[in-house]
Each structure stands twice: as C-alpha cells, then as structure tokens.
Amino acid sequence: MSMLLPNESRDLRKKYKRLLWFLPCVFVFDVFVCFLFFEYTSINKILAGFIVICITAVLYLLFSLICAKIDKKKKGKLEQNKNKDPFTND
Length: 90
Description:
The chain is mostly helical. Helix content is about 80%, strand content about 0%. The longest helix is centred in the C-terminal third of the chain and has 36 residues, at about 45-80.
C-alpha cells in the first residue's frame, strides 16, 4: 500500500470538500427538476431519470472546469508572489 505525500493528501482533502459542497446542491436541484417533470409533464419516468442524469453530468463537468480554473489562478498567484518579501509594503 502506498502512502500519500503531504501535498497529495491536502489536494485530496480539498477535492473531497468541494465534492461535499457540490453533491447536496445538485441533489436539491435534481429533486426540483424531478418535481417539475412529474408534476407538470407526462414524461416517462425512465426518460426523466436519464435527463436528470445528463443534467447532473453536465453540471459536474462545469463544476470541475471552474474548480480547475480557480486552482490554476491560485497556483499562478503563488508562483508570482513566491519571491516577494511578505514584510515589505510594495
């Protein structure tokens, strides 16, 4: 069994936290979409489930792209400010 490096462990915890924020939000949204499908349309339940799964997949892809862009910006800022002295007011 391989051990995680400290930075890998930190990244994994960050990904789990983000996923734990995403899942409840998307669950509430999916419940709302299912309610709309079943209450206001006469759509087949299997088709409605497939549509909800597709919507969830698209939302997760958007979420992961946004998180990747945020991580890239943070990494760029850290690289830019790496050599800057924190005790000076430039």
